[in-house]
Structure formats: C-alpha cells, structure tokens
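Progress report, Aim 2. The chain analyzed during this reporting quarter is listed below.
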Amino acid sequence: MTTGQEARGLLKTLQEKYQVFRDYQPLAIGIDKQLLAQDDSLNRKVLRLALGMHTNSFRYLKSMEKASLRFNLDGSSGGEVPAEHRKHAAEVLRERFKKEAERRKAEREAEAAERQRAEKLDQLVQKFGKRN
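Predicted structure tokens for the chain:
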C-alpha cells in the first residue's frame, strides 16, 4: 500500500471517528498533536498527508472561507479563524475555479477543432471519394 493510499485510509477513519472531520469544520491549529496524543502509533508522515488532503479539499476550503471559529477533536472551540486564513481559503478556491474554467474552455476548443477536422475530411471524401 502506498503512502497516499494509507493517508486516504486514515482520513476515512478520522471522518468516521470525529465529527469535526466528517462535517469539514475548521480544525484547531495543532490538531495533529491532539491526534497523536490519542494514538501515538500514527505514522506522522501519513497523518500529515491525510491532514493535507482534508484541509485542501473543496468542502474544507468552503467551510474555512466563512468560518469564525476553529474546533478541537471533541468539538470544543479551538480558537478563532483569522481573516487572513479566510482570505487564503477564498483565494485558493478562486484559483481552482479559474483553472477548472480554463481546462473546460481548452476541452471545448479541442472538441471544436476536432469537429472542424472531421467536417473537412467528410467534405474531401464527398468531393473526391465518389469517383469510379
């Protein structure tokens, strides 16, 4: 099993076990230390990857964009979300939307170019392909 697969498995376990993960609530700074205190057998590298996957997910960023509080594992307050963290989440989301829009535009342009090539080929076949 690769480290990425292990991280996805750990993230799924965290989402099953903790509501803050399941509900994509903003996590308290140092949540990794809380998790390691509860289970010191966790692989730190895998934990770091799992937390990165979670905190870079669309749902988490959407939650951070509007959040005012962070949460500990038990759901208690884990401090405020500074304005710069909300702004960062909004910027990451905006950049993702922009890249996705550019990707879709490039796909549409490629499909249109392919249709044009197919139409020209059909025209050539009609023009030159009917000779006996």
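Residues 83-128 form the longest helix (46 residues). Residues 106 and 112 are 10 Å apart (CA to CA). These observations will guide the mutagenesis work planned for the next reporting period.
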